[in-house]
Amino acid sequence: MAIRLNGLRTALPVGLALAGLLLAWEAAVRLFGVPAFVLPGPSGILVTIAEKSNILSAGLLVTLTEVAGGFAIGTFIGVALAIVLVLVPPLELMAIPLVIAINSVPSVAFVPLVLLWFGLGMASKIALAAFAVAIVVLLNTLQGLKRPESEAINLLRSFGASRFGILFRLRLPAAMPFLVTGLRVGLARSTIVVIVAEMMGGYGGLGQVIYQATAMMDSLTVWAGVVVASMASLGLYGLLVALDRKLVWWR
């Protein structure tokens, strides 16, 4: 009950602030007579979402499939590589400089290359999302796996724990908060790179809806696509918050 009350106290100010912002936006558009192609009001965007729900829902399904597929693959690769690097320290010394160098380049910079390698279908978007997620999950999980102090590790060794025993009993629980942080950052990065990739070349998705609407100077549809993408991202973020509470329940 206390958790629900705390959640309500947190959500209520955010909801009121958002409602106030939307009302001020609508009032300003109507008061100053701003044309829809410059900045449509929230009411016009909502009407467009309702009118083009079929197109937007189809695009949303494609985008979510690509993001979810890449997110799952990237998470698995990132965690697996982090475990390997912790268990084999010489590999970490060789791999981490390369990983950091790759991470310093924005994921969207690789979009043209991946489109050439994997084509314009869903495979290229899933690959880009997996890449964006794997790098950040790897770095965060590796940091968490190395978090336990040497005294705690030596204590487990004195009781006969193997490297895998220490990994599962000490390192992985300590890495959970870092892993969840990496998942949150990776989700945002994967969503961005998928939508950008859809805009640069694709057969469907919200990015392609936004691109086609831009080509036709349809400002309302562009805004509708952006709003739907934002709402979907918030929904996915909410799932990660719930996952955080399950995996890192002791915080």
UniProtKB/TrEMBL annotation:
Tell where it localizes: Cell membrane
Q: Which residues form the ABC transmembrane type-1 domain?
A: 60-240
Q: Which UniProt keywords apply?
A: Cell membrane, Membrane, Transmembrane, Transmembrane helix, Transport
Query: Which Gene3D superfamilies does the UniProt record give?
Result: MetI-like
Query: So where does this one cross the membrane?
Result: 55-88, 95-120, 126-145, 166-186, 192-211, 223-243
Report the main location listed first in the record.
Answer: membrane
Topology in the membrane? Multi-pass membrane protein
Q: Which InterPro entries does the UniProt record give?
A: MetI-like (IPR000515), MetI-like_sf (IPR035906)
Family membership, please give it.
Belongs to the binding-protein-dependent transport system permease family.
Q: Which PANTHER family match?
A: ABC TRANSPORTER PERMEASE PROTEIN HI_0355-RELATED, ALKANE SULFONATE ABC TRANSPORTER-RELATED, MEMBRANE SUBUNIT
In Swiss-Prot or TrEMBL terms, this protein is called ABC transporter permease
